[in-house]
Amino acid sequence: MRLTIFILLIFLFLNPIHGQVSKYSNEFLNIGVGARALGMAGSVIASVDDVTSGYWNPAGLNEQDYTAQIGLMHSEYFAGIAKFDFGAYSMRLDEKSVAGVSFIRFGIDDIMNTLDLIDADGNIRYDRISKFSAADYGFIFSYARKPGIEGLSFGGNLKLIYRKTGDFANAWGFGFDAGVKYNLRDWYFGASARDVTSTFNAWSFNTSEMSEVFAATGNELPDNSLELTMPRLMLGGAREIHM
Hints:
Blueprint: H1 2-13, H2 35-39, H3 53-56, E1 68-77, E2 82-94, E3 97-113, E4 130-145, E5 152-165, E6 169-184, E7 187-194, E8 199-205, H4 211-217, E9 225-229, E10 232-239
Antiparallel strand pairs: 1-2, 2-3, 3-4, 4-5, 5-6, 6-7, 6-8, 7-10, 8-9
């Protein structure tokens, strides 16, 4: 009976715990990376052990089998309109520590800018149409270390965020993640706390190109603002079965 309850709790921990917040932010960092992890619906907090650990749980970097690893991924969404790119590199510093860096870009390119479509005389001028990109960038710097307790490892991330929408708006942000893993024989347990101090995005808007069009269409010009990504705790458990 106790074993049954324990296994049920492990499966419940595979799902992320979400706080009740009124705003979503930096959702491009929640898409997920790695074919294996995506095939498991992201249930790898306790079992990840390669270069993608910098994304899922930085403590897992200390379990990589090689001195250095490189990971790359490209995927497309909405019939190729949105493109997602991921790259990562990790390197063992000594027997107890590993460092890594990851890069994420999620963007939509070649968006039509029709703000200048109609000239001062009221003529439609297709030659005045330009294109811009709306893209989000994430830079993750990871460090993992074993404290000397068998089976235990911990790690942390420093995240730098850059978001840009053509020449109209951009934002800089930063945040921190923390992770821990513990292996007990064939059992694996993990916890990943994302945005532990909240991740801050400071938005700046260039309204010089929008003011006339927004006034004519009755829209309000956006103000410079601060956007927050609230903390999340993700727990996981896994069991290795030898066949």
